[in-house]
Amino acid sequence: MIDNLESSLVKKISKLRIESSQRNFYRIFDDKEASYILMIVPDGIEESIESFCKKSEFLSSMDVKVPKVLSRNNDLGLLIVEDFGDNIYQFNLSEKNADEYYKSAIDQIIKIQESELNRSIFNEFDQNVFDQNWYMFQESFLEKLLHNEVSSETVKILKNKYNQVCKEIDNHLKVICHYDFECRNLIFLDSREAGILDFQDAVIGSIGLDLASLFKDLYFFWPNKKIISWYEYFLKNSNLAKNNDIFLSDLIKMIDYSSIQRQFRILGKLSEVYLNLGRNDRLKDFPVLANYLINTSKKYKEINEIGTCIDSFLPILNKRIKELS
User: Fold this and answer.
1) Cα–Cα dist 256/296, whole Å
2) Which of 23, 140, 190, 228 satisfies CB 3.0 to 4.6 Å to 271 for a cystine?
3) What is the pLDDT of residues 5-51, one digit of tens each?
């Protein structure tokens, strides 16, 4: 199929959404009006075609709803996959359909988590990664984006508390995690199941990580009562949670801690995207991420200094976002 990309078989091609990574996506139509998704992975980045295909095959074997790989060319960094359509959660979630959409997403998380921990395919989300995430946060966000205006004492406290969060996460029950299981990577299928995109970064990590991605979302803010009902749905249907005596209070803390680490990572990553690629479309998300960190960390006495520290330089952040937007 890839060999025919420039032939008369391809009748139309359109570029899809911009990602925070360097991957590019296109929808292509053949001469019979059937559509497919073309993914282009440039040279020199870690997200290899080989890794994507191995993870796709593995997840499909566990009945996880990921697009089928139809054709590939490793040398050119090209991949053609099944087209799941345009019913992306990010643009179609509403109060009316939220319960069905979120429960469908949780069903997929449970399938992923109950898969075998295949370490030949999935890397560990471990201390090495935690450290990389911290240095990206410190260098790209604190030093470059905020012009090193945050005091060294504040940075020292943040790093200490970040390490404390990571130590806690490292003790959580380990499962396969999508890593970015958020609304922009989910599509509601005609089968009334959640289809999953952008799984190439999947890792072995905390049972709370994908739930944190789903419910600590930048685009939707649901009443706490609703969120708790979805946590309870997960606990009711997850054999892993039952077999490991994970109760609601345990799950909430696992999700909160995973979300704190994740938000440090995203602040660093989006800062890097802005600095290296000049893209400012995600700058508006920075205050949301910062406030998530403040509000979540302040729930826990042992790490509430994270919130205090970030609160102290929130005016600096808001000023920079205004300058750059």
Assistant:
1) 6
2) 140
3) 555 466 678 888 755 556 788 999 987 778 999 988 776 655 578 88
Note whether 179 and 205 are within 8 A (CB): yes
Burial 275-308 (b: 16+ CB within 10 A, else e): eeeeeeebbeebeebbebbbebbeebeebebbbe
Calculate the average pLDDT of the chain.
92
Torsion of CA 215, 308, 137, 149, to 10 degrees: 140
pTM here is 0.92
- β-sheet with 10-15: strand ranges across: 10-15, 24-30, 35-40, 78-82, 69-73
Distances (CA, A) of 95 to 187, 226, 257: 17, 10, 27
Q: Model confidence over 279-322: pLDDT tens digits?
A: 888 999 999 999 999 999 999 999 999 999 999 999 999 999 99
* Domains within the chain, CATH numbers bracketed: 2-82 (3.30.200.20), 89-324 (3.90.1200.10)
235 Cβ neighbours under 8 A, 6+ residues apart: 241, 242, 246, 247, 248, 251
SS3 assignment, position 62: coil
Tokens linked to 60:
């499909």
Q: Other C-beta atoms within 10 Å of 76: how many?
A: 13
Provide the β-strand partners of residue 12: 29
The residue among 9, 317, 45, 319 whose CA lies nearest residue 154 is: 317
Joined together, the tokens standing for residue 280 give 């400012």
Alpha helices in the chain (DSSP H): 49-61, 89-92, 98-113, 127-136, 152-170, 209-215, 224-237, 239-243, 248-277, 286-297, 305-324
Strand partners, 177: 203
